[in-house]
Amino acid sequence: MCGIAGILDATGVLAPPELAEAAGRMAGALSHRGPDDSGLWADPAGNLALGHCRLSILDLSREGRQPMLSHCGRYALSYNGEVYNHASLRAQIEAARTYSGRSAIVWRGHSDTEILLEALALWGPEEGLKRVVGMFALALWDLRERTLTLARDRLGEKPLYYALNQGLFLFASELPGLMAAPGFTARVDRMSLALYLRLSCVPAPHSILDGVRKLPAAHLLTVRLADLTGELPAPRAWWSLADVVEAGLASPFAGSEAEAQEALLGLLRQSVRGQMVADVPLGALLSGGIDSSLVAALMAEQAPLNGAGKVRTFTIGYSEAAYDESAQAEAVARHLGTEHTTLVARPADALALVPKLMRIAGEPFADASLLPTRLVAELTRQQVTVCLSGDGGDELFAGYNRHVHAPRLWARLAGLPRGLRTALAGLLHSLSPQAWDRVFAALAPILPAHARQRLPGEKLHKLAQALPARVPPAFYAALVSAWPDPGLLVPGVGEASWALRQPGSWPDRELCPQGSGPWLQYLDTAWYLPEDILTKVDRASMSVGLEARAPFLDHRVAEFAWSLPGSMRVRGGQGKQALRGLLSRYVPPGLWERPKMGFGVPLDAWLRGELKDWAAGLIDPVRLKREGYLAPAPVAEAFSEHQSGRFNRQYRLWPVLVFQSWLETFGISG
Asked: Is the pTM of this model over 0.85?
C-alpha cells in the first residue's frame, strides 16, 4: 500500500530538476500512506515525473521499490494497492513469453508491482487490468508513445485525484498531494459543496475543489501532452457494475440453495487465502457482526493450512453501552480461538481526534464513524501491518435496513395519497427521537429480535423525511440525505450530478426495477460503498500506515453475489441470508444474531457538551457570512434545535462543521 503522485508538464516551463522536485513534494504530502520508503522517476524527454511513497508489504527489498521500469524499458509504473493473484499472473506472463518466442523474464524480485507492470506491458492497460484480482490506483507512463494512463480498481478501494492546472496535469492519491503542486490554487466547487451537504461525502467524479476530479472506480484515463491544451479526454470504464448486476439477475444461479452456499464458500475461501499473503504481520478487524466474523472464521480455518499461528483480531469498545459491541466480538474471538485485542475508547480519545480529522481525510468527509475506524486502525497498526475486514458485505448481500424494509414500504406507500403520507410524516415528527426511543424500549420485550434497533427514534424521523416522496429516486434520496434540501445552505447553486441522477447508467429496469431491493443495492454499491465506506477505511488505515483488505470485494465474489436468488439475500425480514448460512457453520448464531448497530459515536451528546463551543465557533453567523459559502440562518436553526434536545440534528450539523474545519485546516478562503 502506498501513495502515488505525478506531474505532466505541457508548458515546458519546468526544468527537469524542478519537475522532479515538484513530484517529490507532492508525494511527500502523502508520506503517511507509505512511511517505509520513497522514490522518484522522471522522463525529461516526456516532461513527466512520478513520485511514490511506499508501505512495504510484499518483497521488502529494494527490488520492490517504485516507480518501477518494465523489463523492456518502455513503461514506468507508480502504483498503490495489492494484486492478490500475482503468482497466477506471473505464470501467465512466463507462459505467454515462452510461447511467443521471446526470452523469458529474469525477475528482479517477487513484488506484485513487478508482475503487474509486466502484465500491463504484455497485454496493454485494459486487458492487463481485466486479468488482475486486487485493489489498486495506478499511473502507467508509456515512454515510446508518451501517454500517461491512470486507472482504479473495480469497486473503488483505492483513491486517485487528478487536475489540469495551468498546463500541468497533476495526479495524487489524496487531495493534499495536488495542493502541494507548484502554482496550485484551491477554490471550492460550490456544486460539489451542495452535493456534499446532502451525502456527507463528495462522490466521484467530483471533488470539493474546482477543477479537481476523482477517477471513478473501474475507470481508466489516458492523456497525452497534446490533450493538456484543451479539454481532457473523458475516463472510460474497463469494468461495469451495471453489466454485472444485469448478468446476475438475468441468469441467476441454477442450483439449489445448498449448492449456492458451497459455491460462495469456495469463492470466499479463495479470496481470504489470497488476501492473507504478505511478508509482514497480518490480522483482522472484528466487530462481532456477520461480515467481520465470517472473514475471521475463514482466516482461522486457513491459518493452519499455510503454517501461520493464531489469527490476530482487533476490535474497539466504548464506555457508552449503546455503542459498544466489544463483548460480542470477544465472544466470537474466543469461539474461533483468535488472539484478540480490544481497545476501550473513552470519549476523550475520540474527541482528541476531532481536530486531526481534516488532515486524515484530506477532503470534507462527514461520516462520523471515521473516528472509531481511525482509533481501531491505530490499535491494529501497533501489532500488524495488514488487516482484513468485512467491508462490502452489506452492499453485496443486502445488509442495510433499507434493502430489507424499503422495497415493501415503498410498494405500500406508493398507492396512498401524498396528503395522507405527509400527515403520517407529521405524526412521526410529533414525538422527538428520544421519546420514540422510550416507546420502543417499553415495547422491546414483545418485539422480535430483528426489530430491536439502537436509536429507533432517529430511524423513524429519517423515515418521516422520506414519506412524502413521489417517486422511488426521491424516496432513496431522502433515506440517504443529511440535508434534504442543500439549496437552503448554498443558495442559487444546483447540486453536482451523482448516481441517483444518472438513470442511463442504471441496470435494465425490467431486471432491476426502481424501488426494488436489487436497485437499492446497486445504488449503494455504485456510490455509497466507494465514496463513503471505502474512503473512510482507506483514510483511517493509511493515516497510520496500515493496509486494509476486504475479501468480499474480490470481483469474483461480487459477481457471484449478484447471481444469488432473492431469497438468499432477504428472507423473513432479515438480509444477508447467504452469509448467515455460512457463518452458522463456524460460529453459533447466538453469538452474532443481534440487531445491526453500525459503527457510530455519541456525536449527538458531544455536540451538546464537549464539542458545543468548538461547533459554535465554526458556525458563528458572522463568520459564515464573511466566508460566503453557507447561508447562516438554516445552520443556526439546526444548531438551536439540537441544543434544545427535542431534535437530533447531528447528521445535518456534522457535514457543516467538518466543512468549516476543513476550510480552517487548509487555509482556504472564500
From this structure: yes
